[in-house]
Write a structure and sequence with these properties.
By secondary structure, the protein is low in regular secondary structure. The protein has a single domain, classed as Methylpurine-DNA glycosylase (MPG) (3-methyladenine DNA Glycosylase, Chain A). The protein contains 2 helices and 4 strands, in the order E-E-H-H-E-E. Strands 1-2 form a two-stranded antiparallel sheet. Helix 1 packs across helix 2.
Length: about 120
């Protein structure tokens, strides 16, 4: 099975700066996510990894290059979380040499839907 990942490009066209979204907590649309994941009950495993997250959200190759203010895919303003955000090193980027040690992984403290180390 091919997994499509949810990367948000954070720079101009032609620059590879992006954020990989590795996990989300289902708040709205959990029933649809469960169907896509082939599960009956919501738990952390339906969206706690980049491939599982994209599957649960229905992200496909057709979303590639889409702006985040479309009717198909968007990001909404949520509650401020800065006091609960943990900063650590990234996962699965050993190939990046010294850059693999940069603290560029962020997640909400004690959230069950965070992708595993």
């Amino acid at each position: 099975m091919t997994h499509h990942l949810f990367n948000i490009v954070t720079n101009k066209v032609g620059y590879a700066d992006a954020i990989l979204i590795r996990g989300v907590e289902p708040i709205i649309g959990a029933e649809t996510m469960l169907k896509r994941a082939g599960k009956r009950k919501t738990d952390f495993s339906i969206t706690n990894g980049p491939g599982k997250l994209s599957n649960a959200l229905g992200i496909k190759i057709s979303h590639n290059g889409m702006m985040l203010d479309s009717q198909s895919i968007w990001i909404e303003q949520g509650e401020p979380l800065s006091q609960r955000v943990i900063k650590t090193t990234r996962i699965g980027v050993d190939y990046a040499g010294e850059d693999a040690k940069l603290p560029w992984r962020f997640y909400i403290k004690n959230n069950k839907f965070v992708s595993k180390y």
